[in-house]
Structure formats: structure tokens, C-alpha cells
Amino acid sequence: MSGVIRALVWNEYYAERKVEAIRSVYPDGIHGQVASALNAAPGILAKTATLDEPEHGLTEEVLAQTDVLFWWGHSLHSLVSDEVAERVVERVRDGMGFVALHSAHASKPFSRLLGTRTGKLRWHEEGLKTRLWKIDYSHPITEGIGDCFELEHEETYGEHFDIPAPESLVFVSWFPSGEVFRSGCCWTRGGRVFFFQPGHETFPTYYDENVKRVLVNAARWAARPDRITYICDETKPLEKID
Ligand code: ZN
User: What is the Å distance from ligand 1's center to 79 Cα?
Assistant: First the structure.
């Protein structure tokens, strides 16, 4: 790909403003830290958008200039308008990449893109350690990542995760309470879709060097600067038919 990757990091931006303990972890919001990690990488220009902006900051014009959209949401999924959610889905069908972070598994764009029944999963929250195992060694999202890496504190996610089978299973997470979880999953929905499990708001997950590397790799993998054009219509035969 030539040129700069235009990334947009969307966040509901609620917990960081309401809860001091969370604000102290992410004073510029989760979106601010994710964008900062992306902007630190050569060839990526990341901007941000939040729920409270007009049209949630996701106007037609903004999405038309976005190659990959990162999404973090947790408690306010239902406040995302159906119109904007559908606009995001349509743009992904046109080729835009979509990276669903952590609890974005229950967001409107993610569940609509994947056609999940609920998008739900097993979870509990004690801030246990997690170990993410690299499964797909050939996948570009794992570039620079070792066999596995640990996060000292994360929310526990476990199977069953109500998703269609991923086209690539990139990471699987282990938790000391016994659960395992498909923590890095890829699909194609016109554009490329990636789900990445870590990122509970009370923990400094998005400052972790391995996590930041995955975010950058995901931006590079999912971004697509050109729109997909389809011809699905009555057409003339390509060969002469006797
Ligand atoms: Zn969480």
C-alpha cells in the first residue's frame, strides 16, 4: 500500500469521564491512547471520534476518508444510532477495515457485520493475569509478537464466544481461572474485520508494548485505501456464443 493509512479511533468515552480511577489510567480517553499508539508508527495518521459528537463523529465525509476504523464501546452500545451503525457497516462492505476492541464484541457495527445472535461471551472481572498465545504464525497481525505475551491484569473473557467461525484465528487467551478465549479473530466482510480481546477500561492495557504492536499491525492489515467496486448485474457475454 502506498501513502499514509488513515485510521479513526472511535470511543463511547463515558467511563473515563465519570470514574476518577479510570480517568487516571486514560486521562485522554481510551481513544486518545489508542490513537497515540497508532500515530507513533510510521505511515499511520490516526484521528479520533466519540459518541457525543454530532452523528457520533462518523459522518459520511469522515468515513469516506477513513481506511480503518477502531471501535471501543462498553456500556453505551444502545446509544449508537441505528443509522450511524448501518453507515459504518456499509462503509466496511465498501472496503474500510474495522477493528473491534474488547467489549466492542457487543457493539452494533460488530454484531451487524458478523450476523451474530448475541455477540456475547463468558466473563468475570477480578483483574487476573492473561496470557495471549499466537496461533496463526503467518498472519501479519502477529508480526513482531513472540510465541505468547502476558498482561498482568485484564478482565476475564471465556468461551463460548458467540461469533461465526473466524477466517483466521490469530490469538487465543488463557486465564488462571481456567477459561480460554478466541482473543484475536479475523473475518472479511468486503473490508477486513479484526476483533482483539484486551482493553478493559480499568487496566493500562493499551500502554503495553505488545498490545500497541498488535494495534499497529491490525491497522496495517485492515486498512484499504480504495473502495471495492462490484459488478453484480445483467451483463453482455464475454465470449462469442454461437
Ligand atoms: Zn471490560
Answer: 18
pLDDT digits (tens, 9 = 90+) for 44-71: 999 999 999 999 999 999 999 999 999 9
Q: Is the peptide bond before 153 cis (omega within 30 degrees of 0)?
A: no
38 residue type, one letter:
L
pTM of the model: 0.96
Q: What is the pLDDT of residue 2?
A: 58
Mean pLDDT for 90-106 is 97
Residues whose Cβ atom is located within 5 A of ion ligand 1: 103, 155, 200
Alpha-carbon distance of 54 to 56, in angstroms, equals 5
How much distance in Å is there from the Cα of 238 to the middle of ligand 1? 53
Longest dimension (CA), the chain: 76
Q: How confident is the model at residue 119 (pLDDT cuts 50, 70, 90)?
A: confident
Cα–Cα distance list, 2 to 5, 40, 57, 65, 133 (Å): 9, 18, 26, 15, 31
Mean pLDDT value across residues 175-185: 98
Distance 96 CA to ligand 1 centre (A): 25
Structural domains in the chain? 5-115+183-223 (3.40.50.880)
